[in-house]
Design goal:
With 211 residues, the protein is an alpha/beta fold. The protein has helices spanning 2-9, 33-36, 61-73, 95-100, 116-128, 144-157, and strands spanning 27-28, 44-45, 49-54, 83-87, 108-111, 132-138, 160-166, 178-184, 189-196, 202-205. The strands form two sheets. Strands 5-4-6-7-3-8-9-10 form an eight-stranded mixed sheet, with helices on both faces. The protein has a two-stranded antiparallel ribbon with strand order 1-2. The radius of gyration is 16 Å and the shape is globular.
Length: 211
């Protein structure tokens, strides 16, 4: 797995985004107006790590980030030639649903890894290389030091890092620029904004994520 990823990321034919901060917008609109108004900068922070805590995979976390991913891969976008990388997803992404959501499938890169260290290594390389506009990571075992490395890699590669973790990690320290807890109940969903640069903790009714 490591050799394949290294060869792909080192391919000189791939377009490489500038790593100089300030050449790109600092934030990516979430596609959810209610959420944008509470996030400093009006969207997800670019070149930074966003941590989303969930009870289990499939709780609505992809609905939360899909509009922004579609924006990054859209024709004419600054990032249209960069990859959207999925590292160790718990399920095979359902291509028709992603396409319906506006995500360009030709720019998707899926990396399967079983060992925790391989997952974190692959995510760090993808974030740092400069060829990925966004990197989605499912990390069951990641400590503060590992997350710090991912945050630094996102800054270096001008990439939006999204790490999904179990809600039990809520009380652990995290260097992520934005930290959210997605609570999915039978009739409604709630977002707890636990941390954001320049913001304050609050709760947001996430009815926009309900089917």
């Amino acid at each position: 797995m490591n050799d394949v990823l290294e060869k792909l990321l080192d391919n000189r034919k791939l377009w490489r985004g500038s790593r100089k901060p300030g050449l790109r917008d600092a934030h990516i609109a979430t596609g959810h107006a209610v959420l944008d108004q509470f996030l400093p900068g009006g969207g997800w922070p670019r070149a930074a790590l966003t941590e989303i805590l969930i009870d289990k995979p499939g709780s609505g976390e992809l609905q939360l980030v899909m509009p922004a991913l579609a924006r990054l891969s859209a024709d004419g976008a600054k990032d249209q030639h960069r990859w959207v990388s999925w590292i160790a997803p718990p399920f095979v992404p359902y291509a028709p649903a992603l396409a319906d959501g506006g995500i360009k499938l030709s720019r998707m890169l899926i990396v399967h890894a079983k060992k925790g260290m391989d997952v974190l290594w692959a995510a760090e390389q993808a974030l740092r290389c400069g060829t990925c506009s966004a990197v989605l990571l499912w990390a069951s075992k990641a400590d503060a030091q590992s997350l710090r490395r991912l945050q630094l890699a996102a800054e270096e590669g001008d990439s939006w890092g999204i790490v999904f973790r179990d809600a039990a990690a809520r009380r652990q320290h995290s260097p992520a620029a934005v930290r959210l807890r997605l609570l999915s109940e039978q009739t409604h969903k709630t977002l707890h904004l636990l941390k954001s640069r320049g913001g304050r903790p609050l709760r947001i009714a996430a009815d926009f994520l309900n089917p």
